[in-house]
Amino acid sequence: MLRTGATTAILAAALFGVSTPLAKLLVHDLSPWMLAGLLYLGSGIGLGLVRLARGLTGSRKRSERGLRGAEWLWLLAAVAAGGVAGPVLLMAGLTATPASTASLLLNLEGVFTALLAWFVFREGVDRRLVAGMVAIVAGAVVLSWGGTVSLDGGWGNGGWGNGGWGPAAVAAACLMWAVDNNLTRKVSLANPADIATIKGLVAGSVNVGIALALGDALPAAPTAATTAAGAMLVGLLGYGVSLVLFVVALRHIGAARTGAYFSTAPFVGGIASLAIFGEPVTLGLAAAAVLMGVGVWLHLTEDHDHEHDHDEMEHDHPHVHDAHHRHHHDGPVTEPHSHRHRHGRLRHRHAHFPDAHHAHRH
């Protein structure tokens, strides 16, 4: 469970981290609304085509299930927060924030995600997780301070020194994504590709519609097709595939811990930004990277193990036959598979995380 959750969360982080400096290359040619729309349309259309192709050529084995009942309401709320408000705030913030600074500020998404998970959605928390988040917040404070000294002896403006609103917009985007992450966890037992496709199509259509209503448009030909295609490709990988992996991680290790692993994204984005834009390495950026790195390490090395009870429950999700799934099948089965099944009462001890079977209080 931990290996699957950690791996998919870190892969999701890498894809999203690289998308931040790449989006900054496009933000000068497109309005924030239009760019956000194209990024999400790229993810929705691309994943939709992949799903269609797999449906035409794949097997009929039921390894995932669709969205059901109240899950649609949770997903729509998540789309509004993370699919509409979040990317627009990020695109606006990028216009007044160095890409490397914006990339590291995105660590705040993990902090906000954890705080909401702990205090609103009641996920388990321990001192190691709190210490990691304190380190990440300290790094964000250092990063957003005023003038910072460059490692080559020069002076550079920190995020808040450059008008203040750019980093504030990036931080607000992180809060919206934190809300999105916690709401998406409530639907994470459904097919991740379906969730990401719906998010992409709805959020992309809304943002492009707003952009057109405000009088925005694509650049004039011949650059229009290239710019739009570039934005949609970045969206497919950095928003679409990344989101599928992120939902898988939510399913296995919960919102707070997935957000912590996802905090590696800014480091990937920061390195890419330095290479793409040739931005100076400042003492503030280096210190923030160290503090944030310590925070992420504390989360990556967590070991949550105690005796706990499982109440009786019945649900439907992808699973294999393990200590938590010992039900009977008539005939041969393939794993993983998905069907409605019942869990009896169980008390045992093992390392675990707040997945669908471990939502107990601490």
From TrEMBL:
It is found in: Membrane. Residues 338-351 have a biased composition (Basic residues). Pfam families: EamA. It comes from the Bacteria. Residues 4-144, 165-299 form the EamA domain. The keyword Transmembrane helix applies. Residues 307-321, 352-362 have a biased composition (Basic and acidic residues). GO terms for cellular component: membrane. Residues 307-362 are annotated as: Disordered. SUPFAM superfamilies: Multidrug resistance efflux transporter EmrE. It is a multi-pass membrane protein. The chain crosses the membrane at residues 33-52, 72-96, 102-121, 128-147, 159-179, 200-221, 227-248, 260-277, 283-300. Its main location: membrane. Keywords: Membrane, Transmembrane, Transmembrane helix. Gene3D superfamilies: 1.10.3730.20. PANTHER family: EAMA DOMAIN-CONTAINING PROTEIN, INNER MEMBRANE TRANSPORTER. Belongs to the EamA transporter family. This is DMT family transporter. It comes from Azospirillum brasilense.
